[in-house]
Design goal:
12 strands; Sig_transdc_resp-reg_receiver; 2 domains; Rossmann fold; alpha/beta; Arc Repressor Mutant, subunit A; four-stranded antiparallel β-sheet; WalR-like
């Protein structure tokens, strides 16, 4: 039995059966619900490892579900939705989703996204054991064990994606990370739409940690290439 518990939130019975049958064949543990309120309740009571979430739910919009769960949990959320506009993807990712899979999808792609997320969970669990528990760079401090970020000793609130981006840059301080490398590490893909999402997240991250956006102290943009964390 796969040790990861998946919470499936899907109101379309056919799609829900396809997903749960796929998970069952791959020996995943899973729970399946059809409404946003049930999703929140099950997330609270069962603490799943990964959440597969449809946006078009009968009671709550999926983005609202993401926002509510993000007030207390950093569980990886993979959106599985028929909404395929970039604006919809960016809204879900900005709300705190970790990945976005557009319907119709192949079961192989779904399983690949799950494997990427599992690897990321395992990697994050090993962060404290593979590097210093606290990262310091000028006024910036990252407490990996607590999952907290401070500027001049004052804690700042980051979304899960912003925190992952900051940790990725910190781990590779001084190195230029390409757009494709970052999107693969954060979302498990290198689609152009994910690069657009990356720019949005990087802009919001900078607003929170940089004193002057016109003269960045920590995150340097390499136009057309990617980003680098500077040593202060």
């Amino acid at each position: 039995m796969n040790k990861f518990m998946i919470l499936v939130v899907e109101d379309d019975a056919a799609v829900r059966n396809l997903i749960t049958t796929t998970l069952e064949m791959q020996a995943y543990k899973f729970l399946a619900v059809s409404t946003g309120k049930e999703a929140i309740m099950e997330a609270v009571s069962h603490n799943p490892d990964i959440l597969l979430l449809d946006l078009g739910l009968p009671d709550l919009d999926g983005v609202e579900v993401i926002q509510k769960i993000r007030t207390w949990s950093a569980v990886p959320i993979i959106v599985v939705s028929a909404r395929n506009e970039d604006a919809d993807k960016i809204e879900a990712l900005d709300a705190g989703a970790d990945d976005y899979l557009t319907k119709p999808f192949s079961v192989q792609e779904l399983l690949a996204r799950l494997r990427v997320t599992q690897r990321r969970i395992i990697a994050m669990q090993g962060v404290v054991s593979t590097q210093d528990a606290v990262f310091e760079n000028g006024a910036l401090t990252i407490d990996y064990a607590a999952g907290c970020v401070y500027i001049d000793g004052e804690e700042i609130h980051l979304t899960p994606i912003e925190y992952k981006l900051l940790c990725l840059l910190a781990k590779n301080i001084g190195k230029v990370l390409t757009h494709n490398y970052i999107t693969k590490e954060i979302w498990g893909s290198s689609w152009d739409s994910d690069v657009a999402s990356l720019r949005v997240f990087m802009a919001t991250l900078r607003k929170k940690i940089e004193k002057a956006s016109s003269s960045p102290q920590y995150i340097q943009t390499h136009i057309g290439i990617g980003y680098r964390m500077l040593k202060v």
